[in-house]
Amino acid sequence: MGASGPRRGPGPPDGGWGWAVLGACFVITGFAYGFPKAVSVFFRALMRDFGAGYSDTAWVSSIMLAMLYGTGPVSSILVTRFGCRPVMLVGGLLASAGMILASFATRLLELYLTAGVLTGLGLALNFQPSLIMLGLYFERRRPLANGLAAAGSPVFLSALSPLGQQLLEHFGWRGGFLLLGGLLLNCCADSAGDAPGEAEAHLAGPRVRKAPSGGRTRRRLLDVTVCADRAFAVYAVTKFLMALGLFVPAILLVNYAKDAGVPDSEAAFLLSIVGFVDIVARPACGALAGLARLRPHVAYLFSLALMANGLTDLSSARARSYGALVAFCIAFGLSYGMVGALQFEVLMAAVGAPRFPSALGLVLLLEAVAVLIGPPSAGDKLGFPGAFALDTCPCGHMAAGLPSPASQES
After folding, report:
1. What range does the domain containing 284 cover?
2. What angle (nearest 5°) sits at the alpha carbon of residue 157, between those of residues 155 and 161?
3. Distance CA 107, CA 67 (A)
């Protein structure tokens, strides 16, 4: 995602070189969101080799997601200081190195530090700059562009989950991690760059302020004044609450299905079902939000998507058969896709392009805490022993007094 293509006019071109930027953002978004979830197909093998439980293995994906979100402010500062291209090149190398080193791990702690911390940091240094660049190239078509870029997540999830299962069966989890590390080098090829004067013209805004002496100006690397914006504050709180449970189904669904007696290949295919529905939902929702009559009310459409996702999660408490799990995946993929397509469009509309990098970094930092708590907490409930334990559905909601899948097998 270079910036060698010419830009014409003072504002975003809403096309032209922007489509190349959109394509690269599609790939990077796919890796950033799809990779931590697809890694879950290796959990049972990790549990067997390391003698660990659900909660212990779920920390790998949780740490990866937490790094993706928690390093948001750091990524914002680095992009402001060095530009998108070098930050993303380094990020691609770190993401790849993390998975390659993880293939040699002998303890779970080593997996946490390599696949979790290092790969998560690398994905973060790719993901946020790509969103910043997308906002610079699209204005009128921005909802559609966000929806198309967000579709990278389900597309890659649909591909990476079965791929991970095949790699696990043929090469084991170590060989799978090694090959996935090589695959992540594609992030380097999609690195973004700043067109001449682009970052200064579009991101400087409130970031440039007078120095105390000499009348010289310096750039504010992280604009924390955005926190005083009421719309941003409401959005940040909403995203924190949402992130507590939004990613839990995708991370624990495969193992929940396997423990319920679903064959491994069919259990892995459940994530593909979510992905297939998600692929259609994200661009469609982005196009819908871009309509002249709906765009001023995109925040309400986002709220509706969140409500639908929450109700879907609640209904999954009784999803125990494969058919019921498939129905849950379809409903979840639809609502999840709507949330994914609208979340960054709502933030961009609320704070504007100049403050978007700082706002995005701060929001991702808040989400990091939530995603670090959610999956491991649900994993504890999912693996709780006993005939009448508190059983947990894939979304992490508990149904008291019901036998756990493990006890049903015994």
Report:
1. 224-392
2. 130
3. 20
Q: Three-class SS of residue 159?
A: helix
SS3 content of the chain, % helix, strand, coil (to 5): 75, 0, 20
**pLDDT tens-digit readout, 362-397:** 888 888 787 767 656 655 555 433 222 223 334 433
Residue 274 near residue 333, CB atoms below 8 Å: yes
The token duo for 75 is 């990524």
Same domain membership, residue 236 and residue 165? no
Q: Strand, helix or coil at 351?
A: helix
**pLDDT exceeds cutoff 80 at 43:** yes
- For 65, the enclosing helix (H) or strand (E) is helix 54-70
Distances (CA, A) of 389 to 5, 170, 239, 400: 59, 36, 31, 7
Condensed to tens digits (0 to 9), the pLDDT of residues 242-271 reads: 888 776 776 678 777 887 788 887 887 887
CA distances to 98, 117, 327, 364, 387 from 61, rounded to whole Å, are 13, 10, 25, 16, 28
- Can you tell me the mean pLDDT for 53-61? 82
Same domain, yes or no: 143 and 255: no
> DSSP 3-state assignment of 217?
strand
- What pTM did the predictor assign? 0.70
Q: What is the pLDDT of residue 122?
A: 94
Element (H, E) at 399: strand 398-399
CA distances from 143 to 25, 135, 270, 321 (A): 14, 10, 28, 37
Residue by residue, what is the 3-state secondary structure of 256-310?
Answer: HHHHCCCCHHHHHHHHHHHHHHHHHHHHHHHHHHCCCCCHHHHHHHHHHHHHHHH
Residues for the chain: how many in total?
410
CATH number of the domain enclosing 269:
1.20.1250.20
